[in-house]
Amino acid sequence: MSWLAAAVLVTVAAPATAAHAATTTTIAAPVVTPSFPIYTVGTAVTFTFTPGSTDPIPVRYQYQFDDGRTSSVRATAGVASITWIPARRTTTFTVAAVARDGAVSAHTVDILLADAATPAADQDLNGDGFADLLTVGGTPGLTSGLWLATGREASTRGRVHAPATNIGANGNGMFLTDTPADFDGGQAITGQFNGGGFQDVLVYYPTGLHAGEAVILFGSGDGSVLQPQYSGNAQPISNGVFTDLNGTNPIQVANAYDASGMGSPYDDLIAINGDAGVGYYLAYYPNYGGTGAYPIPVQLDTPTPTGGSDWDSWTMATTLLPSGTAMFLWNESTGQLYLWEGIRFTDNGDMTGAISYTQYQISPSWHQGSPLSTLQATDFDADGVPDLWAVDPAGVVTAYQVANLSTAVPATVRAGQPQHLS
Q1: Rounded to a whole number, what is the distance in angstroms from the first to the last CA of the chain?
Q2: Which of 221, 222, 190 is nearest to 203 (CA)?
């Protein structure tokens, strides 16, 4: 999906400077025309500046991208052009006309949106090719927000760049507070949820005032602060969209990628649904080709890794491997940790379905009784076996390398050196 990015959002008066403070000329704000309405990162765009009025005719134009240097271009008969190459999702573009006597017009401010040229790697939010760690704040160790600790090369065995950056500083665009506290109590996962090629962020609220609601924040592409306050950068999902036939909402969601095999550019979801009355179970949400386009889910009768139905005791963490979707399942109270690889979803077309997978026991007592604020799966050492990042409530992340998968005996798990994210 691509987005038109040429709407004038606001016109503001340019401050007078010593060079033109005494001028009496009033010059109209310029008209800015894109060479084409769809922008792509890495592809040059030509903008043309024309007079907003013919009296007086501008002799040059001043322009600025985001908070960068202010540049100037000469005008011929009031017309000038520049070329720009998008580098990320959102760019603020400011242009002003300048009269012969130095008078400066009000500014024309455009918000330019661009899609990725090629899909970003799984969980890569800053575009360097490595998976990144994302955790929600509002915990004893991290203030409110969405905290991004970018990943590093495979040889570092899961080390991240710390301290983390709060890419949720502008809020979620849905609660209209524009504050990081919007994310308190939310669950954040990354994926291709917008279809624009960047890794986006889906934040789901399982409890509280906004229980059952979610918002998709369109990824920046370079790891910068997300900009959901601008139109075209976020998609709210209202309460009821995720409600299943039992009338319950998920208590947890995870990215299922394309486990359904439909080939959509929008990722599916897998969730743990239910309540104490109807019980708890897995539910599959195939995406039907749009941002937030999730129909009533298919309830699965798949048992837990230990053969039970106590799905409310398990935590999911998924990643994408060459073999398809992989999911860790962890029981905090017992410490049992399992991995399902090669997950495939089959839809029977009658609101029933099933998943197939290969199960591996990772550990019988991993992190037993120790709560985590984030459990994130990714193959950070690039050996083909998914690994784990675990963030505790104190804001400390530990990387766990997983190796020696076997269907007969537990795998090998190696803990890295803990890192403080703040």
Answers
A1: 35
A2: 190
